[in-house]
Design a protein that fits this description.
Radius of gyration: 27 Å
Number of helices: 1
Helix content: under 10%
Distance between the termini: 19 Å
Order of helices and strands: EEEEEEEEEEEEHEEEEEEEEEEEEEE
Length: 357
């Protein structure tokens, strides 16, 4: 039914999300085996990883995207190939640098972390997430526990796991090459974990409240994370030289997505008066706060002599699309003309109605 006098109609052209928004933060990763790659999460809208499937003794091969689905590790530009158990109650005071499953002897409560070595090669670990929800993700709330399992104590420099994130281009997969080069990542200090102890060289219990800290923050993604677009989250530990490095780990990771439901915003007059024999013009515009308006068309009330001219697509997300509604002198009304603006990313539309009299 036609809307008149400047009423605005919203239209969602998104297959599969008519009544509800379901996160499907597919984790190209995932944890305890309850969710596999390319399988969307349930509608709880939250992903959790406890790392408790990691080994509790000895060492084993580390395979990117296999040992923990969606997880990757690197030492500088070199892929990490092994992960070892580090049990604080039986571990050496100066272990080799590398990727570790931290915990206590015989305990399945594990944490994933890094120990540096005597070089300046940073070590990284991280996870790839993909948006399979069909809608735009506006923000991510990330929470985890930072745990210190080894006190290097040979220098006074505070050490940290530096948190960074990177969005991939739509349809482009992220993975091993991204974590090895560490190019294009954005630092996000609110999610860094800084060492808590620097008093006595040796292993310490990372589960002790004095050696652990709850960390959480919400990342506002701009532009949004679009359907099928991937995001990589990494924790990077710079090595401290000379001297032994702290052993720093993450545990009980949770990621919650927030959706963007904003539609394009149109600016149109409610009416325009056209006179016989004279041409009337009306400027129109629209913008999408997180998308790009690329098209405008008359969807109802199109008659000979009424047209859209001077159409200029928005230059990018958040930009303004402009057009002119032109009414020839022979097309006097009344004509309720409906103009529809379309944002390309999700084919979202916004309509406005101009009464031509």
């Amino acid at each position: 039914m036609a809307l008149i006098n400047g009423a605005v109609r919203q239209s969602w052209a998104r297959g599969g999300i008519a009544c509800s928004l379901i996160l499907a933060l597919l984790v190209s990763l995932l944890a305890s085996g309850t969710v596999q790659a390319s399988v969307p999460t349930p509608s709880v809208q939250t992903y959790n990883q406890t790392f408790d499937s990691l080994i509790s003794s000895g060492s084993t091969a580390w395979q990117n995207d296999v040992t923990l689905k969606g997880w990757y590790a690197a030492a500088g530009s070199t892929p990490v190939t092994s992960v070892a158990a580090y049990n604080y109650d039986s571990a050496p005071a100066s272990p080799a640098g590398g990727l570790y499953s931290f915990g206590a002897t015989g305990s399945s409560d594990r944490a994933l972390g890094l120990i540096g070595n005597f070089t300046n090669t940073p070590k990284r670990m991280g996870v790839v997430l993909r948006n399979t929800s069909g809608s735009r993700i506006k923000r991510l709330t990330i929470a985890y526990t930072g745990e210190q399992w080894l006190d290097g104590n040979t220098i006074t420099t505070t050490e940290r796991l530096q948190f960074k994130y990177k969005k991939g281009a739509t349809g482009v997969s992220l993975g091993a090459s991204d974590i090895q080069t560490s190019l294009g990542f954005t630092n996000y200090p609110a999610l860094d974990f800084t060492s808590l102890r620097n008093s006595a060289l040796g292993p310490i219990n990372g589960k002790d409240p004095a050696n652990s800290r709850a960390i959480s923050s919400t990342i506002e993604l701009h532009p949004d994370l679009y359907p099928n677009q991937e995001l990589m989250l990494i924790w990077e530990k710079d090595n401290v030289s000379p001297g032994a490095d702290d052993g720093l780990a993450i545990d009980n990771l949770s990621i919650t997505a927030g959706f963007n439901t904003a539609l394009p915003v149109a600016s149109c007059p409610s009416s325009v008066t056209a006179f016989q024999g004279k041409t009337a013009t009306v400027p129109l515009s629209a913008f999408d706060p997180n998308g790009t308006v690329t098209q405008a068309q008359i969807t109802s009330g199109a008659v000979a002599g009424i047209s859209l001219v001077n159409q200029t697509p928005a230059p990018g997300p958040g930009g303004t699309y402009t057009a002119t509604l032109q009414i020839d002198g022979a097309a006097v009304g009344p004509h309720p003309v409906v103009v529809q603006f379309t944002s390309q990313e999700l084919n979202e539309t916004r309509e406005c109605t101009i009464n031509v009299t």
